[in-house]
Specification:
With 135 residues, the chain is mostly helical. The chain has five helices and two strands. The chain has one domain (2-127): Winged helix-like DNA-binding domain superfamily/Winged helix DNA-binding domain (Arc Repressor Mutant, subunit A). It comes from Neoroseomonas lacus.
Length: 135
């Protein structure tokens, strides 16, 4: 059941991104668009989140850079470069998060607010320790 819901969410996120003008993304790129958004993270962390090798992640990061979604830069005197969203990448994430807020509202309406809140709470508990602390 979770897989069916996930598939529905993925289709709707991709449709929302395409409708917002982000038509150049390939299926593989979506693996890097994780929660939280990849902004100020090491490439190795993106690889871990996406459950892929560092080499594969770096290849996809380079593609996302060439498409204008990501940039790598050093912060301060750090020897390693971090991956940041560009303004285009932020706009993409904004369209994705707007879609997700719409899905949350629909599901809360279908299930009722209390049941949906319980569902989210249960999913957060199951996702630990992968889920970052909410801000």
């Amino acid at each position: 059941m979770l897989r069916l819901c996930l598939d529905q969410v993925r289709v709707r996120m991709r449709d929302a991104a395409r409708d917002a003008g982000f038509t150049d993304l390939q299926d593989a790129h979506w693996a890097l668009l994780t929660y939280p958004a990849p902004d100020g993270v090491r490439p190795s962390e993106l690889a871990r989140r996406a459950h892929m090798s560092r080499q594969a992640a770096n290849h996809l990061i380079a593609q996302m850079e060439s498409l204008g979604y990501f940039e790598r830069r050093r912060v301060g005197d750090a020897s390693r470069r971090l991956v940041f969203l560009t303004p285009r990448g932020r706009a993409l994430c904004d369209s994705i998060f707007a879609c997700l807020r719409g899905i949350h509202a629909e599901w809360a309406d279908q299930l009722g607010g209390d049941r949906f809140a319980g569902l989210l709470g249960a999913l957060r508990q199951l996702a630990q320790p992968e889920l970052p602390a909410t801000r």
